[in-house]
Amino acid sequence: MRVAVVGAGVVGLSATAALLERGAEVVCYERAGEPMAERSAGSSRIFRFAHREPELVARAADARAGFERWAERARKPMIVPSGCVISGADVAEWAAAMEAAGAPLEMPAAPERLLLPTRRAPEEALLDPSGGVIDVDAVREYLTGLTRRALRHEPVDAVDADGHVWTRSGPARFDTVLLAAGAGTSALAAPVGIAVPGELEHHARFTFPVDPTVAWRSWIDLPAAQASTYQHASGPGRWAVGGHLDPAGTAWGIGRDAATAASREAVLEYAREHLSVEPRIIETIYCTPTPGLGDGFHVQHAGRVVAVHGENLFKFAPVLGAALAAACELV
Q: pLDDT below 50 — which residues of the chain?
């Protein structure tokens, strides 16, 4: 079976690796200079069992087992254990989903168990003891090693339902085409009749210097009265903070520079007021998510084309790669 994978983010590379393992002939097209350079950029991601739906909790458990298999093969840990705290007005919904899926949790979590860099502990919080931080660099090294022979640095201009892929080198035909191109998926999928949300917004995550001896937990804070944040260690002495801010300030039409500047000021103000970190930004990670999607993923197909989209997909990468490889075989 010949498969074209469009996009060498973590999902595309995971699917490529799974397809190669199944004996498929694969070409993975990537428009950027390096794999995992766009939506998969950065050195770290939060891993968590905690989700609002029991099915996603179960998929996260499957993904954790997948990361452990990758780590065993790579002889390098993929997830740094830290636990993850979820706080906010709807934390009971998260706890109910975890309980329904049989995932361990502490709810309510005692204040001394939270281990957060906040000056005031949240009133409602659960602790997901299985949570942690994904070492993106370790995942990147492992997946690029597996898929290097399949990777082609060439943008894809179009695909059709019969399995044709057009690039500057001309057309090529495949048994299946997998679209895992992040922000580029919508434009490629629409002509074959697959509707993928195409709206984008600007988003930036900022890293602050901290005492390298601290051992805080990853944290997703969803307060009812102010902007939500996600926070985690991104290496020794580094604390990353991302905020979901006023949509008007991060809308696509604002432009990258203006949106990043507004996000920077908002997160800096938040850090000064609420966090025990040095309020000095030492790194900015930029990406272009689709607003309103939240957690989870969607897989659709038309003809010989399979398309995947969603947000916060990194933590599901081992599960998604295997599922997409199976979907390509069924088309």
A: none
Please count the structural domains in the chain.
Answer: 1
* Entry field: residues in the chain: 331
| 67: containing domain | 2-330
Proportion of the chain in helix, strand, coil states, percent, rounded to 5: 35, 30, 35
- Separation CA 44–CA 218 (nearest Å): 11
What gap in Å lies between CA 56 and CA 61, rounded to an integer? 9
Residue 165's pLDDT is 98
Q: For residue 42, what is the DSSP state?
A: S
Q: What is the pLDDT of residue 246?
A: 85
- Among left, alpha and beta (phi > 0; psi -120 to 50; other), residue 326 is alpha
CA atoms of 241 and 273, how far apart (whole Å): 14
Which DSSP letter does residue 289 get? P
Query: Within 10 A of 321 (CB to CB), how many other CB atoms are there?
Result: 26
Q: What's the CATH number where 217 sits?
A: 3.50.50.60
